[in-house]
Automatic annotation (TrEMBL):
<dbReference type="InterPro" id="IPR004342">
    <property type="entry name" value="EXS_C"/>
</dbReference>
<feature type="transmembrane region" description="Helical">
    <location>
        <begin position="105"/>
        <end position="128"/>
    </location>
</feature>
<keyword id="KW-1133">Transmembrane helix</keyword>
<keyword id="KW-0472">Membrane</keyword>
<feature type="domain" description="EXS">
    <location>
        <begin position="294"/>
        <end position="494"/>
    </location>
</feature>
<protein>
    <recommendedName>
        <fullName>EXS domain-containing protein</fullName>
    </recommendedName>
</protein>
<feature type="transmembrane region" description="Helical">
    <location>
        <begin position="64"/>
        <end position="85"/>
    </location>
</feature>
<feature type="transmembrane region" description="Helical">
    <location>
        <begin position="149"/>
        <end position="171"/>
    </location>
</feature>
<keyword id="KW-0812">Transmembrane</keyword>
<dbReference type="GO" id="GO:0005737">
    <property type="term" value="C:cytoplasm"/>
</dbReference>
<dbReference type="Pfam" id="PF03124">
    <property type="entry name" value="EXS"/>
</dbReference>
<dbReference type="GO" id="GO:0016020">
    <property type="term" value="C:membrane"/>
</dbReference>
<feature type="transmembrane region" description="Helical">
    <location>
        <begin position="207"/>
        <end position="227"/>
    </location>
</feature>
């Protein structure tokens, strides 16, 4: 009915296995042979539409597709901003701040995680341009995610999270409180209204949205980058249990690296805990959660516990490293992470002690511990985590690029990174202190700046590790060459005179 099918041999060079990578067709004249008559017949069949392969030959320009995607992205962003702004303006001024604070608390963690994914994609792009073998540094397999695939994941996260937030703002401002509290369920199963109604009676606002993120990570089937998700989950498991005796291998660089990033995301984990707490206690889309002394309020004991967990994990990693290597540097590094513990718990004591004790005793101790933690962390970044002898080598790209021209070998990069790292190390204690987190806009800004500090920290930390690996490989090669030279000298002595 639609014409005959063209039979193609299985060993044809034009057939490629499609997976997570782009499918590339290497069609060249040398591969097609020298039979011009067959080429003419195939071209006529393609023009006549008698083969299903004709659809693969008609493809829009990649540049055109990219421009169209960017246009749709900006149109979508404008629509979300417009709907969100109009929804906020519909509310009364006295309820507007409370409502924005609640919406911020639920979506702030996911927005910051999305931002971190975007920044990590930029890190990988710079490593690729500078010919830094990050796959060797992080011990990745051949199926690792490239910067393009990281950006693809970040794009979907950027679409899903703000869309859900816009729907929440719109529904709540228009009086649909129950729909606002269940809008993630509404998005996922809008064809099953009765089931959704039953779910929303038992689940709060972001249950399915948060559960979808967790299920995406632990989904056991071979879709959505299974090997990369398994690598991430395995690394997280090793971070949480660094002293477990069953680990035959020592703590690896990916374990240290990801644990350091988690310390910058401690505020994100704290907000995630508060969000889940309010879902469990059905305090979503109400003002009951605003009571500071409630189980999910700002005075909750769970807040400092969640804040301190990344530092505890990193502390025990250093202890495990000292057990394996007997290096005293590991103990000094463990001491650095232990200085964050007093900052967190002394701040939380404000809500559990009398005001005069806080002013006279605990507040001075908190200030002292904050200064100590900031300066110690800054010192360690400069002297241990970074290699200042080749500070901007990471920006030496293999091909000419505007980024390499602006950053490689520039003194202002050296000064900027040191100064910004010192300032942001000091402001980071603001986020760790529960009694200073009343202004959510300020806290969000400081947390985002900490993400940017960690983003620039990644460049020089990976560069330092890269230099160490290269120096070790050079030493090993030189040790291999020495016996060869000795053998040549010995063999030369056996000649006849």
């Amino acid at each position: 009915m639609f014409g005959g099918l063209v039979s193609i041999p299985n060993n044809s060079p034009h057939l490629r296995k499609s997976g997570s990578r782009p499918v590339v067709f290497d069609i060249g004249t040398s591969e097609l042979g020298n039979s011009s008559e067959e080429d003419f017949i195939e071209s006529n069949e393609i023009k006549s539409g008698t083969t299903p392969l004709s659809s693969a030959a008609i493809m829009p320009s990649p540049v055109l597709l990219w421009r169209f995607k960017v246009l749709l992205f900006f149109v979508w962003g404008f629509i979300c901003c417009k709907i969100g702004w109009d929804s906020v303006m519909r509310m009364s001024a006295d309820l507007r701040d409370l409502f924005l604070y609640e919406a911020f608390l639920y979506y702030n963690p996911l927005l910051l995680v999305t931002m971190m994914v975007w920044l990590w994609g930029i890190n990988l792009w710079v490593f690729t341009q500078a010919n830094v073998s990050y796959t060797k540094i992080f011990d990745l397999d051949q199926n690792h995610l490239t910067h393009r695939e990281i950006w693809k994941c970040a794009t979907w996260m950027t679409i899903v999270v703000p869309t859900s937030m816009t729907a929440y703002l719109y529904l709540y401002s228009h009086g649909e409180v129950s729909l606002a509290a269940s809008q993630p369920v509404f998005f996922l199963c809008f064809d099953f209204k009765e089931i959704c109604y039953m779910c929303t009676e038992r689940l709060n606002m972001q249950v399915l949205l948060y559960a979808a993120v967790a299920m995406t990570l632990i989904f056991p089937f071979d879709i959505f980058y299974l090997s990369s998700r398994f690598f991430l989950l395995r690394t997280i498991w090793r971070i949480m249990f660094p002293l477990q005796a069953s680990f035959s291998a020592a703590i690896s660089f990916p374990d240290f690296f990801l644990a350091d990033i988690f310390t910058s995301m401690s505020k994100v984990f704290s907000d995630l805990e508060r969000s889940v707490c309010r879902m469990v206690h059905r305090q979503v889309a109400t003002i009951a959660w605003f009571e500071a002394d409630s189980v999910c309020g700002s005075h909750s004991v769970a807040i400092p516990i969640v804040l301190v967990l990344p530092y505890i994990f990193r502390f025990f990693q250093c202890i495990r490293q000292y057990k394996d290597t007997k290096e005293k540097t590991s103990l000094l590094n463990a001491l650095k992470y232990s200085t964050a513990i007093p900052v967190i718990f002394l701040s939380a004591l404000k809500y559990h002690v009398f005001p005069d004790k806080w002013t006279n005793i605990y507040r001075p101790l908190w200030l002292l511990s904050s200064v100590l933690n900031s300066l110690y962390s800054f010192y360690w970044d400069i002297t241990r985590d970074w290699d200042l002898s080749c500070f901007t080598r990471i920006f030496k790209f293999s091909k000419p690029h505007i980024v390499s021209y602006l950053l490689y070998g520039r003194k202002w990069v050296y000064l900027w990174v040191i100064a910004s790292n010192l300032i942001l190390r000091c402001t980071w204690t603001y986020k760790l202190s529960a009694h200073l987190r009343h202004n959510y806009i300020t806290v969000f800004t400081i947390t985002a700046l900490e993400m940017l500090r960690r983003f620039q920290w990644v460049f020089f930390r990976v560069e330092n590790e890269w230099n160490k690996m290269n120096s070790k490989s050079n030493i090993q090669l030189s040790m291999i060459d020495v016996p060869k030279e000795e053998e040549k000298l010995l063999s030369s002595n056996g000649h006849n005179v």
